[in-house]
């Protein structure tokens, strides 16, 4: 009855339609901004890692020099440092290969002189030095398929746990602060249940990798 008494005018229909369209556009813009934010974070992390890598090289160079000057005194610590370096490089290599697998599965193209990098496109530099331009940085399917369905995240978790335990074994037990730092940085515990969101228990794998866009997963890795 109310609809007959107060019919929707063509103008009101147009306003309603514009509202729906604008709302959809806003949602798309927000999504784009979020994706761009992940791009910025990823670029920042890459720069930070380069700085850390340079400092690590300086530390290992100092170890080599100290060992050359006094092998008996420095030998034990250099052995531990070299062990950490090997284990870390293995872990980094594993993550690189996982990221490359995700990017290739989602769709990518190698950057060449005939296919230059576009300013608005994300990219991944592989361990071998190739640059892959992402075709679909908002892809939700490939990351979930590889990391959740195919248990890629579970294997990653096992690798992290193994790496963490190996590092802790190299630290003296009385150095509790350093041990706690390692345990915290490489924590793969399941997140606490959030009762405000229905109280559903989530695994570490699903918390970080289920239904997440590709660019977000690459940033987390």
Biggest sheet layout: 3 strands, antiparallel
Give helix % range: 55-70%
* Rg over alpha carbons: 25 Å
Parts with pLDDT < 50 across at least 5 consecutive residues: 25-30
Q: Shape from CA axes?
A: flat
Beta-strand content estimate: under 5%
Spatial arrangement of strands, main beta sheet = 1-3-2
N→C terminal distance: 58 Å
SSE-based structural type: mainly alpha
Order of helices and strands: HHHEEEHHHHH
Number of continuous helical runs: 8
Give the total of domains. 1
Number of strands: 3
Give the averaged pLDDT, no decimals: 78
What does this structure look like?
The chain is mainly α and 221 residues long. The chain has one domain (6-190, 200-220). The protein is 68% helix and 5% strand. The chain is built from eight helices and three strands, in the order αααβββααααα. It has helices at residues 2-5, 10-69, 71-106, 141-149, 152-169, 176-185, 204-209, 214-220, and strands at 108-110, 123-125, 131-134. Strands 1-3-2 form a three-stranded antiparallel β-sheet, covered by helices on one side. Strand 2 (123-125) and strand 3 (131-134) form a beta hairpin. The longest helix has 60 residues, at 10-69. The N and C termini lie far apart (58 Å). Mean pLDDT is 78; it is low at 25-30.
């Amino acid at each position: 009855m109310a609809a007959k008494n107060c019919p929707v005018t063509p103008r009101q229909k147009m306003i309603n339609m514009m509202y729906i369209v604008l709302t959809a556009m806003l949602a798309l813009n927000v999504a784009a901004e979020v994706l761009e934010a992940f791009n910025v974070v990823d670029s920042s992390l890459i720069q930070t890692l380069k700085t850390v890598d340079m400092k690590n090289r300086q530390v290992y160079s100092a170890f080599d020099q100290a060992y050359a000057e006094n092998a008996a005194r420095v030998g034990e610590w250099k052995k531990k440092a070299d062990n950490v370096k090997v284990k870390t490089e293995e872990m980094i290599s594993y993550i690189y290969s996982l990221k490359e697998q995700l990017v290739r599965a989602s769709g990518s193209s190698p950057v060449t002189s005939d296919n230059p990098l576009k300013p608005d496109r994300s990219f991944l530099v592989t361990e071998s030095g190739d640059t892959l331009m992402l075709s679909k940085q908002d892809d939700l399917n490939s990351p979930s398929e590889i990391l959740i369905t195919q248990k890629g995240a579970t294997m990653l978790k096992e690798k992290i746990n193994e790496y963490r335990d190996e590092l802790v074994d190299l630290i003296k037990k009385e150095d509790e602060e350093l041990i706690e730092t390692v345990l915290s940085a490489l924590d793969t515990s399941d997140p606490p249940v959030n009762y405000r969101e229905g109280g559903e228990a989530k695994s570490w794998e699903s918390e970080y990798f289920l239904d997440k866009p590709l660019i977000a997963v690459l940033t987390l890795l």
